[in-house]
Amino acid sequence: MASPKLELRQLGTTGLKLSCVGFGASPLGNVFGDVPPAEALASVSAALRLGINFFDTSPFYGGTVSERVLGNCLHELKVPREEIVVSTKCGRYAEGFDFSAERVTRSVDESLERLRLDYVDLIQCHDIEFGDLDQIVNETIPALQKLKEAGKVRFIGITGLPLSVFTYVLDRVPPGSVDVVLSYCHYSINDSTLIDILPYLKSKGVGVITASPLAMGLLTDSGPPEWHPASQEIKSACRAAALLCKEKGKNISKLALQYSLMNKEISTVLVGMNSVRQVEENVSAALELAVTGIDEGLLHDVEAVLQPVKNKTWPSGVQQS
Ligand code: NAD
Ligand code: MG
């Protein structure tokens, strides 16, 4: 009997079909702890075997390590190029932000070399709230447009934490010049504010990716990394929610991922993964959701615990004038 397949969803009007669970490669840059090369390779291999076709990285993750490791894995596994969708970013680096046309143009060449690819499917301006949004509109997107014409990138996106940056840019760029937005930490059980702008994004014809369904580790048994920007109040509430699940013999990460997957207006949910076990658990969570639906009782109890911090976030970026 054929095993059930991960659902594929259309990414806006790009024509790309992404697996509903996407492989977030930031952990391959060792940002959530060290990942030995063999474990990275095994994780990417498991992802491909289980139907994940979307891989997201950035030159920022681990100071180029994530891109290099992902590139080596895809190369070693001899993945047919047309069977995968690869996304990387530009403008954010270990040494700081630079969204100038010159830097992002050079950046794409550098990324292609590290990824060992001739083109990326998606290039995204990385965390634009740290840049000058007018520069993104007037300089960065036009520069990426040229790379699109040159065949180095297929589609263009923007990423960031505050949702207002998406509307600012999309209201000002020529229609069709931004294909995708990647939002993170705004479609999780503790914060689902992305919902508010989904109709707007749809009206602009852009594809929507949500990342960090586990709220960058808040909704896991082991808890967030040291650098996590949430307040103590948010961290404590999420820890209490994880404990509640554990007491009931359930897993908060599974519930959290399923919560993000339920909204089909969102094309893919990017989860950071650094072990075969996590890949298997996350794919299973998606397959199980398709068959049995979410555990409504558990979700209700977890939402009650998280109610005091619901939709609370943290500051990110520079004050825009
Ligand atoms: P996440 O919420 O996906 O959490 C990742 C953490 O959860 C890691 O420590 C991972 O090892 C762990 N984890 C994964 N599966 C698990 C499971 N089944 N059980 C327990 N723990 C599990 O956060 P993230 O990694 O920050 O986000 C996912 C991806 O989205 C990133 O890797 C990146 O590709 C992308 N992203 C992009 C931006 C941006 O562009 N600004 C921001 C955030 C995330
Ligand atoms: Mg388009």
Automatic annotation (TrEMBL):
Lineage top rank: taxon: Eukaryota
GO molecular function annotations of the record: L-galactose dehydrogenase activity
Coiled coil start-end: none
Gene3D superfamilies named in the record: NADP-dependent oxidoreductase domain (3.20.20.100)
Pfam families, per database record: Aldo_ket_red
Any single Gene Ontology cellular-component annotation: cytosol
A GO BP entry: L-ascorbic acid biosynthetic process
Entry-linked SUPFAM superfamilies: NAD(P)-linked oxidoreductase (SSF51430)
NADP-dependent oxidoreductase domain segment(s): 21-286
Protein name: L-galactose dehydrogenase
